[in-house]
């Protein structure tokens, strides 16, 4: 029995110590919370007092401050408007621009002008070729004179008897007369001059142009037979 009583007493002592320790912790925590509540209450009281003071000041100066602010804004607006009016340049009325020429009308005029100049250029080239040949004939007077380019072309076409192009005629003349300078454009111009005089016939096959020698006797007979056939 004595052992049981000692054990029970030991348990009571342990519980008593535990309860006393918990009670001490509880008391300390309550004290800490109470101190925090007191500090917060003081802070809240200070804020409420400041709020009341600010509201009173606002009510006291509210009307005068609003009027002063309105006058300041009005004066500033008038000053800015005056400066802007001084700096704004006077608007100039732009002059009326001349209408631009149409891009489609310009090529048409150019083509028309070129079409009018083309016959004159061709006629001038033909006259120049004839003048060159005439000058050569005068300078080479007598039996020893060289044949003119027109004579060489006529003889060549008569010898071949078939249509030939200007490039073919120029190539043949260059090979037969290496001492003479034969240019393709001069040969073509001379051929056109012979066509105009009726000594050469011009035909066109697709995109190529060919020239054929015309026999003067046969041409005269054809002209004489035309009225009879008519």
UniProtKB/TrEMBL annotation:
Basic and acidic residues compositional bias: what residue ranges? 103-114
Cross-referenced Gene3D superfamilies, in alphabetical order? Winged helix-like DNA-binding domain superfamily/Winged helix DNA-binding domain
What this protein is called in its record is Regulatory protein
The domain of life is Bacteria
> Where is the region Disordered?
74-183
């Amino acid at each position: 029995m004595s052992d049981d009583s000692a054990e029970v007493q030991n348990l009571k002592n342990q519980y008593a110590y535990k309860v006393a320790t918990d009670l001490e912790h509880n008391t300390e925590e309550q004290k800490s919370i109470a101190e925090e509540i007191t500090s917060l209450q003081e802070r809240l009281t200070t804020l409420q007092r400041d709020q009341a003071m600010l509201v009173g000041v606002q009510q006291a100066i509210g009307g005068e401050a609003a009027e002063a602010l309105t006058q300041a804004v009005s004066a500033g607006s008038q000053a800015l408007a005056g400066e802007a009016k001084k700096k704004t340049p006077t608007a100039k009325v732009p002059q009326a621009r001349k209408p631009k020429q149409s891009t489609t009308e310009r090529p048409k005029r150019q083509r028309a002008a070129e079409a009018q100049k083309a016959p004159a250029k061709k006629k001038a080239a033909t006259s120049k070729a004839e003048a060159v040949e005439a000058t050569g004939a005068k300078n080479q007077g007598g039996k020893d004179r060289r044949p003119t380019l027109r004579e060489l072309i006529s003889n060549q076409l008569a010898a071949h008897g078939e249509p030939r192009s200007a490039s073919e005629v120029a190539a043949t003349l260059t090979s037969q007369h290496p001492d003479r300078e034969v240019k393709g454009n001069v040969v073509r111009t001379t051929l056109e001059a012979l066509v105009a005089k009726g000594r050469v016939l011009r035909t066109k096959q697709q995109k190529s142009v060919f020239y054929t020698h015309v026999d003067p006797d046969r041409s005269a007979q054809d002209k004489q037979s035309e009225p009879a056939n008519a």
